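Table S2 (text version). Query chain:
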Amino acid sequence: MSSTAGQVLVRPIKAVVRGQKMMEGAGVRICRTLGTPALKNLDPFLMLDELKMPAHEAAAGFPDHPHRGFETCSIMLHGKMEHADSMGNKGVIGDGGVQWMTAGRGVIHSEMPVVTSGDLHGFQLWINLPAKDKMMKPRYQDYQAGDIPVAEKDGASVRVMAGDSMGTHGPIKLRNPGLLLDVRLAPGTTWQQAVPTEWNGFAYVYEGAGRVGDKAAQVEHAYVFHNEGDTVQATASEAGLKFLLVCGKPIGEQIVQYGPFVMNHELEIRQAFMDYQEGKLQRPEDNPWVDEKDELCSAVEHTSEVSGAEINAVEGQTADRPAAAAAAAAHDDSVRCRLSGICEGEPTSCQDGSAAANPADEDARLACLTSDAERAAAVQEAARHAWGGYRDCAWGHDELLPISCTGGHWLNLSLTMVDSLDTLYLLGMHREFEEAARWLADHLDVGAPAEVNLFETTIRILGGLLSAQALSADSHPGLSRMLAEKAAELGARLLPAFDSPSGVPYSDVNLRTGKGSMPAWGQISSLSEISSVSLEFTYLARITGHRAFEDTPLAVHDRLEGAHTDGGGLLGQYFNPITGKATRAHGSTITLGARSDSYYEYLLKQWLLTGKQTDWLRERYVKAMKSVRSRLLRRTAPAGRPGLWYVAEQSRQGKLSRKFDHLVCFLPGLLALGDFHRVSTVRTLQEAAADSAAEALEAAKAAARAAEAAAAEAAAAAAAVAAAEAAAKSAAGSAESGAEGSEAGGGDASPSLQQQQEQLAQQAEQARQAQQAQQAHRQPEQQHPRQQHAEQAEHAQQQSDHARHAKPQLGAGQDGRDIPDLQLAAELALTCYELYRRTPAGLAPEIVHFANNTEIPLDFPNKHVHDVGQGDFSIKPNDAHNLLRPESVESFYILWKATGDPRYKQWAWQVFRALEKWARVRASDRGHACAACQAEAAERCAAAAEAEKAAAAASEGGSAGSEGGEPAAAAAAAAAGEASGCPPELPGGKERCSSCSSSGGYTSLESVLSVPPPRRDKMESFFVAETLKYLCCRKRKRFS
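Corresponding structure-token output:
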């Protein structure tokens, strides 16, 4: 606290910055002030984040991520955090501890919560390094609470981490002069701190209220001090005040920041990114830091005071980690294994029997199941659990809301029941199948709903009825016939959607009136909506004999044939049902993801359904897949290991986006299915030769254009030389005349003419040099394009002949157009599996963005984030949800059936374990909702009892002859009836609370980046209808 004896000038506040809430690390919520658009940085400080949340919600922490060019300071108020880095350093700080890390030339580290109970509350501050120190050797130091001195005086308590305050010196030695204080003021206390005028500084309020400088203090706000004045001041209100004071001398250098790298120039940022991708971020000689003979670092000798119990907890984490993870972690370094305990390989707990000794650890039990029969039984039990939840909580509704144990409406067609019929039958749940089918035959009114979506109703309701009809035709002929009748009626009510001027169907249709319509936000129908319903309608035509069911949807493909982009078989996302043409009003992205995926899928499957007779379907499938290979297929290129193949998206302007929907994971299975039926999408030898010739011709044209540009530049340079020489001569003549005039007048030569003459001479010389440079760098004479075309074609033919006899190797430079279908299917399936393996929850997000390794990706997060994709892809918080989708496990199932490779069964099993661990809803998950409902029911029961007493009293009074007795008794009886009594055998009204049901279900997840992942209260119909069906892999039988 500064002396008030002399004159002090209190600094005013020049900016107030409100904290912004965002997700960081592996889905951890933080509040950021410094490092936001409102306050990008405050030299030398770059960022300040506050972490404040229950520890179990932050369990995923901040796994491995890189840094270069600055320092980090982590301050813990409550909870414990473990640091581990690529130099071999490891340390834990608890309440009041501080971690200081100098990233210098590069380090990769993680910061993970040690405990999963209680709250975490702390901060992280980024401090810039001057240019001379940005490539210094990385260092790490931690300080426990006892290492941080506390200065106390007149109601102020200050933890001095760095700098000086109230005569106390902090242990952290800053590379740049500064202050780092944790200030806590008792109610009514005013506190001052001397700060040099030239220093920048701010205060971050994290608790209490009062004033900072001349502004009212609020939590989660930063107060930036003006540089006028030599003292900062704060006053606490009656609630007290707690804040961080951060001040420092500016470095005064340019700051270029890109995500976790902070340098002085953009080229240095690009180099840092390249070094990270190539595994060169840290130098080999950067061994674990030891105290070197460096004045700055040797000034402090510090030994961490970490108890043996804490060390054991850090190294083993066995107390809080699942048994399977603790036993198998040595074989699997994935974040899924570390945080969810779902690891590759059989854990030792299965071998020594410890898993069986703990029946409460359900995942440990599942990890030990190895036979097909055991695993199939586990999936069947999951199906019974999901169906039981729907039966008890949402019977007849479209969807199950499993946490609240209620039903949800969408199509008003008993969606989950219809969609799940074939799964019930195939999994041997015949009693459940019969019950559901009979209920639908009696109660499903396909004409009751008004507006429905044509696509969703066709694939889920019509498809569900037809698949159940086909499966049960022999075993349940009566039910099968009734299901066929329902399907025929529904098909007839859906068909008017095609009654548009163009024949391209409307997206929606009214099942009562038969009138088609479009969404309110535009006159559009998506590619999937208009093209993917033909499969179900074709089968309906076969069983009913009505050709219109088949011909009408297939006729849409004639419209689509003329809309292919560049003749390559790929189509945009949206069409106008009025004109029948592709529309750009709502985007014409080419994608195999949402709103387009099933068009490409159904080309092949429709061909198979026609008995392989309709060749144009197969031809369009092959054409489209060849275009996917040539235009959209890409591969990441991380250092030191193979990259991941993926399918990009293409915008209307032709620009590629590395966005990848989980929906695209249908493609591996589709390619495998095509390969099984001898359909190849690999380019032919003739196509390869033509491609090479076209590429050579394009290269020649580009070279010719470059040569023409060089010649034009040379001509321009020659003209500039001539003009400069002429101007120089003119200037020389003017100078000579001026000199003569001056001589005659007895004066000096004009300085302006001399300067002009020198300037023009210099320009002439520069022009000559430019001309020489252009001539020196001219391209050699180009081959004639026809000659290049022929040579390239011959070379391509030789390469293709060689490839026929060589085993395909998926090298980093292999052309995706030449990979055999089954091999490409395997590579894409691996990509889809990695979307599961590389997330903390072990489940794939809805969308990822793959990395472009040739330049800094536009979507590389410009903030402190965890790259769960390990350099291959990143996940944005808004895309991190999981809807229990089936596409990946469907592809694993098809690849297993086609190849017999057991890895696909293992991948599916790991997905199932993650679903069981995080998505399964148990009765205990509804505890809070059940307790609240029971309390409310108990209040209603008590009210009913009081009302009954009042009614009885009123009745007695009426019978005694009171004039108003009859109306009063009637009113009391009515009140008692409305309150409704509570049966004595069920106290508390438990029977009225659906949330108290013991039934289960499975729920979608809000974010796979958190462990445990937050939940959404919804079970999509396709979870039982598809996901569980494909997970139930029994004995392999090849496709027939």
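Notes on Table S2: The two ends are 85 Å apart (CA to CA). The mean pLDDT is 81.
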